[in-house]
Amino acid sequence: MSVYTKLNKARMALSKRKLEKTGHNKFAGYNYFELGDFLIPTQEIFDEVGLCGVVSFTADLATLTITDTEDGSQIVLTSPMGSAALKGCHEVQNIGAVETYQRRYLWVSAMEIVEHDALDATTGKEKPEAKQNLQGIRHSPMKGDVPPVLDGDRALQIKLAASIAVERFKKGDEVGAYEEVSGITDNEEKRYLWICLAEHSAVKAAIKKLAQADKEPIA
Questions:
Q1: What is the rounded CA–CA span in Å between residue 81 and residue 98?
Q2: Is 177 helix (H, G, I), strand (E, B) or coil?
Q3: Is the pLDDT of residue 118 over 50?
Q4: 192: nearest Cα among 24, 19, 10
Q5: Alpha-carbon span 118 to 206, nearest angstrom
Q6: How far apart are CA 154 and CA 160, in angstroms?
Q7: Cα angle vertex 100, ends 210, 161, to 5°?
Q8: How far is residue 151's CA from residue 130's CA, in Å, rounded to a whole number?
Q9: Whether the predicted pLDDT of 3 surpasses 80
Q10: What is the mean predicted confidence (pLDDT) over 116-144?
Q11: CA 165 to CA 170: how far, in whole Å?
């Protein structure tokens, strides 16, 4: 069985899975697949059919190499590397954001995942005006809810930063955990950060303690 046949079987198997779109863009009012929504099911299917997918990066290209674990034959997908300039983030966080987006796009392409909602919801619509003053906004999002002033990409970046902060805290690197989220200073972004850390009270406490010592507005 060729690597192409196995990949096609994997695509068919994934199309039969009931995947839930956990990402939500309240600006345009549509749901979308986050990387975690389909990557774990895809890896399970790859294991069943005998495939392995590995993502790698250079300065110019993001690459997904899909290998047949039986005969070593491969399919290689590439995408030009972009850049990010997210507000309040240092260079490493911006690199992490780009790599996260590229991983998502490569796997969406490999598995032929189609998201009609995003296109249908934004085509022909004017871009909403940016809110100039966030002080008067009354919004108390529930756990996992993305504040309406954040777009999907920024919410994904904050969630990623929170996840990395938790991992660093677990390894005893409290300073590293704080540094990972120290650039998040916007009120709505901080609110979403605390939502992402809702089940990690010790991490939140450590971040706030270091923020107060550093006199940063994160807390």
A1: 8
A2: helix
A3: no
A4: 24
A5: 37
A6: 10
A7: 10
A8: 11
A9: yes
A10: 40
A11: 9
DSSP E strands, 17-73: 23-25, 30-32, 51-57, 61-68
CA distances from 161 to 54, 144, 180, 187 (A): 22, 15, 6, 16
DSSP bridge partners of 78: 63
63 is written with which tokens?
């690459």
Q: Which residue has the tokens 């529930």?
A: 142
What is residue 32's three-state secondary structure? strand
Q: Write out the DSSP string of 162-181.
A: HHHHHHHHHTT-HHHHHHHH
Strand partners, 30: 25
Residue type, 52: C
As a whole number of angstroms, the distance between CA 100 and CA 150 comes to 17
**Angle (CA) 143 197 137, round 5°:** 55
- To the nearest whole number, what is the mean pLDDT of the chain? 76
Q: Which tokens hold the place of 183? A: 């650039």
Q: Is the dihedral of CA 138, 144, 149, 155 positive or negative?
A: positive
